[in-house]
């Protein structure tokens, strides 16, 4: 939805840059919508005299489909962990060896050797977060640390629930709700997850993006959604709270990588090194309100990030988070079949 | 005798030259048409007969699985074969909503067109101009404007609250009602313009004559006006029905994404579904439905013109 708008803006920016005194170089970043801090872009442009054009996408699948189709003109993309692996396996990512860049020393220990990019030969942490329950406590003030909020909702939330239309995240959440794990090949568990989703759907209002703007304006009262968005919604309306499902909740990380057919490889590498600088990583987080995986960036973050329950997972729920892997094709086919049935 | 053959030969040669010249002259247009319309369509058709690759894209191996999947589904769990009831339901919803949109635009468009056609000739252009103004704005922005009107803290609910009529907002957004409001608004001009075109040609003396012969208002509408503007009604209905069938943005923004339409189902296959072949097959299915509707239209128009002769 946003891409038309941003494509228009990108076009205008391109025209403007062509007219202006030429920047020394350019860089085309393909990133999630409402996710890139304009200040970060500005800072990089001024420091390196490289003009950045940002184009938005709304889901990992959109980004993958567009890059795979070719002719996109992007240099860098910011997929989630399970999709980073797909980009690498499909030969769409460039082995740019960020692990040998000077600022790699700032990457937090836990994100240095992730299963989807062993040793970080391709990608650099952008932000990481969780999928949980976002509830307007002025409508429902019971326990929100359970995915029953969306799968078996309390009376006062029925018909007021939004579920993020992100298949991988929601299927993972549903599988954990029925006691299994994401990407399981266990048919019984998948069946249970489908039944839970199908039974819950009539109690939902919508499956849409845009929570940051919609929830404070009362379009819905609860959601299964991403933590940073919940944080931004709370800043707009303070009764909106974020809960970590005790049944288990998906954890994700978005990482920035260079595409194999990138035209501005050197600029892209400069940018990679740039975002591993704690001060710059803090800029990313200050805008989209997710943690970033760069040590020392906390010092540069806004004060309210350090105490936010959306970012600092409470100890009791720390071990409930499960990192989402990339599902094999046979599981993904079942996911899609369930998803189609769910949204028919 | 001899001269006659020669003469007809000359005429034939002349004809041939004419035909050749018209082909040559239209060649650039035909090339563009092929490159921009039929060519890509051919790719879609070919893709629908290939195997989907694991992470999107296709493998160059023949398979009719995608077409099979359009109509049938194997149960994900016990493997039994049945009709693809999810696809059929989505198809049915799309057809139903497109049909209802056609009816509502007709209900609003007919009086509007009649009103414009009965204004003095000098005023008509202003009214037509007003009808076309929304076309100047991007479809996305018009849809978001509707969202702003019907959302829980939108203009209508806030207004009703201030007036003390309700204290809880009426849930209008994210429903079939919201989709209908949006689609009717978006497609209304496509109905009004062809209706107006045929009403403008309507001979209002016939209406007067009918009144003189003591016809009731309803009888005039039913027996005089509707039969005469029928081509406009048919054209308007087609112009609304066809794009409404494949509508993507309006149902997506106003329907809340909980219930898919055909356009959204196709998008799912190319995106998260990672099954480009099925997406291609579904696209061709949509195209086939549109073709069938258009065939009905052509035949209806033919019948109408034959009846007049």
UniProtKB/TrEMBL annotation, chain A:
Kindly report the protein's main subcellular placement as a broad class.
periplasm
Q: Which residues form the signal peptide?
A: 1-23
Localization recorded for this chain is:
Periplasm
UniProt keywords (A-Z) are: Periplasm, Signal, Transport
- From which domain of life does this come? Bacteria
Q: Which Pfam families does UniProt cross-reference here?
A: SBP_bac_8
The terms under GO molecular function for this entry are: polyamine binding
GO biological process annotation, one example: polyamine transport
Its Gene Ontology cellular component terms are: periplasmic space
Similarity section: Belongs to the bacterial solute-binding protein PotD/PotF family.
- Protein purpose: Required for the activity of the bacterial periplasmic transport system of putrescine.
Q: What is this protein called?
A: Putrescine-binding periplasmic protein
Give the source species.
Answer: Oceanibacterium hippocampi
Biological classification of the source: Bacteria, Pseudomonadati, Pseudomonadota, Alphaproteobacteria, Sneathiellales
TrEMBL record, chain B:
Which PROSITE patterns does the entry link to?
ABC_TM1
**InterPro entries on file:** MetI-like, MetI-like_sf
UniProt GO BP: transmembrane transport
Transport: present as a keyword of the record? yes
Q: Which residues form the ABC transmembrane type-1 domain?
A: 91-297
Q: Give TM regions.
A: 23-50, 97-117, 126-147, 177-197, 232-250, 276-298
Identify the keywords attached in UniProt to this record, alphabetized: Cell membrane, Membrane, Transmembrane, Transmembrane helix, Transport
- Membrane topology of this protein: Multi-pass membrane protein
GO cellular component terms attached to this protein's record: plasma membrane
Location in the cell: Cell membrane
Look up keyword Mitochondrion and say if it applies. Answer: no
Q: Name one Pfam family in it.
A: BPD_transp_1
The source's superkingdom equals Bacteria
- Name the protein family: Belongs to the binding-protein-dependent transport system permease family. CysTW subfamily.
Name this protein carries in UniProt: Spermidine/putrescine transport system permease protein PotB
Kindly list the organism's lineage.
Bacteria, Pseudomonadati, Pseudomonadota, Alphaproteobacteria, Sneathiellales
By which gene is this protein encoded?
Answer: potB_2
């Amino acid at each position: 939805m946003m891409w038309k708008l941003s494509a228009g803006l990108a076009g205008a920016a391109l025209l403007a840059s062509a007219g202006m005194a030429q920047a020394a170089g350019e860089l085309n970043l393909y990133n999630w919508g409402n996710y890139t801090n304009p200040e970060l872009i500005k800072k990089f442009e001024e420091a390196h005299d490289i003009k950045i054009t940002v184009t938005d996408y709304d889901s990992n699948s959109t980004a993958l489909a567009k890059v795979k189709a070719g002719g996109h003109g992007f240099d860098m993309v910011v997929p989630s962990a399970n999709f980073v692996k797909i980009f690498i396996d499909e030969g769409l990512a460039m082995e740019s060896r960020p692990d040998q860049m000077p600022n790699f020393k700032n990457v937090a220990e836990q994100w240095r050797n992730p299963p989807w990019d062993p040793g970080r030969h391709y990608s650099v942490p952008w932000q990481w977060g969780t999928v949980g329950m976002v509830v307007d406590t002025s409508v429902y003030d019971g326990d929100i640390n359970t995915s029953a909020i969306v799968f078996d909702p309390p009376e006062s939330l029925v018909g007021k629930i939004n579920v993020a239309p992100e298949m991988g995240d929601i299927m993972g959440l549903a599988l954990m709700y029925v006691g299994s794990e994401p990407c399981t090949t266990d048919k019984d568990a998948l069946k249970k997850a489908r039944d839970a989703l199908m039974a819950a759907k009539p109690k939902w209002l919508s499956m849409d993006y845009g929570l940051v703007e919609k929830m404070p304006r009362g379009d819905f009262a609860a959601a299964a959604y991403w933590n940073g968005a919940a944080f931004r919604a709370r800043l707009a309306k303070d009764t909106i709270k974020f809960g970590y499902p005790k049944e288990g909740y998906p954890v994700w990380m978005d990482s920035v990588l260079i595409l194999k057919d990138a035209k501005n490889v050197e600029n892209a590498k400069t940018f990679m090194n740039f975002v591993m600088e704690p001060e710059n990583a803090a800029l990313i987080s200050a805008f989209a309100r997710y943690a970033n995986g760069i040590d020392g960036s906390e010092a540069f973050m806004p004060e309210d990030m350090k105490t936010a329950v959306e970012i600092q997972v409470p100890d009791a729920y720390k071990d409930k988070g499960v990192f989402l892997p990339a599902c094999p094709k046979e599981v993904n086919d079942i996911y899609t079949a369930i998803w189609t049935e769910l949204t028919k | 005798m001899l001269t006659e053959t020669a003469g007809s030969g000359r005429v034939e040669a002349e004809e041939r030259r004419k035909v050749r010249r018209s082909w040559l002259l239209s060649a650039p247009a035909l090339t563009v048409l092929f490159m921009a319309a039929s060519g890509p369509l051919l790719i879609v058709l070919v893709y629908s007969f290939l195997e989907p690759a694991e992470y999107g894209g296709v493998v160059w191996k023949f398979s009719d699985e995608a077409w099979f999947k359009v109509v049938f589904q194997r149960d994900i769990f016990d493997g039994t074969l049945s009709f693809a009831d999810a696809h059929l339901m989505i198809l049915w919803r799309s057809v139903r909503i497109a049909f209802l949109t056609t009816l509502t635009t007709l209900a609003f468009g007919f009086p509007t067109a009649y009103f414009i056609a009965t204004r003095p000739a000098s005023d008509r252009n202003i009214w037509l101009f007003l009808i076309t103004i929304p076309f100047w704005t991007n479809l996305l922005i018009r849809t978001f404007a509707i969202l702003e009107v019907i959302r829980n803290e939108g203009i209508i609910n806030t207004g009703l609250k201030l007036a003390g009529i309700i204290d809880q907002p009426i849930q209008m957004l994210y429903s079939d009602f919201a989709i209908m409001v949006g689609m009717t608004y978006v497609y209304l001009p496509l109905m009004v313009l062809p209706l107006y075109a045929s009403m403008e040609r309507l001979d209002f003396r016939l209406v007067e004559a009918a009144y003189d012969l003591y016809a009731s208002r309803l009888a005039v509408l039913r027996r005089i006006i509707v039969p005469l503007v029928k081509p406009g009604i048919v054209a308007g209905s087609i112009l609304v029905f066809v794009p409404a069938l494949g509508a993507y943005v309006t149902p997506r923004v106003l329907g809340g994404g909980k219930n898919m339409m055909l356009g959204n189902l196709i998008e799912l296959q190319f995106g998260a579904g990672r099954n480009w072949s099925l997406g291609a097959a579904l696209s061709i299915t949509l195209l086939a439905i549109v073709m069938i509707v258009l065939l009905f239209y052509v035949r209806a128009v033919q019948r109408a013109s034959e009846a007049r002769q």
